[in-house]
Automatic annotation (TrEMBL):
The EC number(s) this enzyme carries: 3.2.1.8
Keyword Transcription listed: no
Enzyme class: hydrolase
A Pfam short name: Glyco_hydro_10
Protein's recorded name: Beta-xylanase
Length: 344
């Protein structure tokens, strides 16, 4: 009676792990990770700023330990991620004098990074999030340093390099906010463009950092559009926040206005029953969507194991109390877990 067991013949059930969890001596946590999940992904330790903090200096130890644990547990590992504007090392984009590098230099750095990292994890990682978050909610390309220095074909180049580095590894485009129709159309265009250029792309990753007001109708439409473009869908970073999204210049507002902070952290003493129920019902609707599309979905990954570990406690405001995941702060499953196991 576990998520892993119940969904075994449908899709992988994954979790993101941080170094703390990989190394944890907590037996209950380790058993839960082993029993409930058939896939794992590094929450941070395979990102470029961690893996190549200085040019030519590579740090693979934490990612290696994650792979060791996964192999012991018989779990599939996803590589996250190769090319992303965030958590990329600053040196990537600058020469020795601190000037912005040329297009050729950045392409070479992308190639070196991808070859080295994909090469290192060859045989241990099933697929890579090759490019992460390159499209904005309005459907335009994000004006990241990769885009500004190389142009939109940085995406195609990244997919080519990853495929050259390991012809057997699966390749994914990964992004958030996929319920936006403009973004949906742009991602479909991107998939078709990559295919038209002969690039391998196996799946679109729908991160699925969701809130209770996310439109499940639009979300499902996007899923169907990606499937229609001829790729699998992966749900790569799912969680369901119950906290309000701040408006305006909230960073400054939080510093100076404690009342506002309270308003933004309404459940610090516990989650009221009705909110818990609202979240529970939402999760059941989500899994209903996943089950209806299960033949085109490769994996559904929660972005963390238990509420206490979720990045949402610190994003977009630091130091709140969120309840976004499947297991609570005592590692107890939420009621929906039992329900979706029965639905599977
Ligand atoms: C987040 C991690 O969960 C945090 O620990 C870290 O501080 C910032 O990044 N999109 C992604 C993930 O692709 O890598 C991000 O993970 C969440 C948003």
């Amino acid at each position: 009676n576990t998520l892993r067991g119940a969904f075994a013949d449908k899709f992988l059930i994954g979790t993101a792990l941080n170094v703390r969890q990989v190394e944890s001596k907590d037996k209950a946590l380790q058993a839960l990770v082993r029993d409930q999940f058939s896939a794992v992904v590094a929450e941070n330790c395979m990102k470029a700023e961690v893996v190549q903090p200085k040019e030519g200096v590579f740090k693979f130890e934490d990612g290696d330990r994650l792979c060791d644990l996964a192999e012991k547990n018989g779990q599939v590992v996803t590589g996250h991620c190769l090319i992303w504007h965030s958590q990329a090392p600053k040196w990537f984009f600058k020469d020795k004098e601190g000037k912005t590098v040329s297009r050729d230099v950045l392409i070479q750095r992308m190639k070196d990074h991808i070859y080295k990292v994909v090469g290192h994890y060859k045989g241990r990682v099933k697929g890579w999030d090759v490019v992460n978050e390159a499209i904005e909610g309005n459907g335009e390309f994000r004006k990241s340093p990769f885009y500004k220095i190389i142009g939109p074909d940085f995406i195609r180049l990244a997919f080519q390099f990853a495929h050259e580095a390991d012809p057997d590894v699966e390749l994914y485009y990964n992004d958030y906010g996929m319920d936006s129709p403009r973004k949906r159309e742009a991602v479909v265009r991107l998939v078709k463009d990559l295919k038209a250029h002969g690039c391998r792309i196996d799946a679109v990753g729908m991160q699925s950092h969701l809130g209770l007001n996310t439109s499940l109708g639009e979300y499902e439409k996007s899923m169907e559009a990606f499937i229609g473009a001829g790729v699998k869908v992966l749900v790569t970073e799912m969680e369901l926040s119950v906290l309000p999204w701040p408006k305006g210049n909230y960073g400054a507002a939080i510093e100076t206005n404690f009342a506002y902070k309270d308003e933004m952290d309404p459940y610090k003493d516990g989650l009221p029953e009705e909110k818990a129920k609202e979240q529970n019902d939402f999760y059941i609707k989500l899994f209903d969507i996943y089950l209806r599309h299960s033949k085109d979905i490769g994996r559904v990954t929660f972005w963390g194991v238990s509420d206490g570990d979720s990045w949402k406690n610190n994003f977009p405001i630091h130091g709140r109390t969120d309840y976004p995941l499947a297991f609570d702060r005592d590692l107890k499953p939420k009621p929906f877990v039992k329900t979706v196991i029965e639905m599977a």
